[in-house]
Amino acid sequence: MPIYPLSVSLEDAYGRLLSKRYDVFAADYATALTAAGDFMTDLALITEARILSYTLATKVVYTDSVTAGANRDEGVTFSVRTEDNEKAIIKVPAPENGILNSDGSVDLVDAGVSAFLANYLAGAILVDDGETVTEVISGRLDE
Asked: Model-level pTM?
């Protein structure tokens, strides 16, 4: 049977947000959704925090390999503009060295970078509070 990740967002009496992750073991998504709803009802009985929302997803195992020297403490930040003309950022951890120019900027015409950002420009992946990216302003290695 599949495992469905369940992420729960809560708020305490002081307005501080917290999240908790659980795994739901069920035969299919519909059954997992019912189990998650029942679990939220039961959780509400034993927590003083307010349950704000929960997300139930299907976990997909992705086959990939790590590149020697990959470091989660390194990253790049893309500055973008959204539909409402606001600026937003997209962060990518452990960037490939080949996408960086000598000054630490990201090569925005690199094929991999272009393919990645096309997901945002096409509206398939959203930023901020559900905004579509309309323009990529820049990309830079984090300091």
From this structure: 0.74
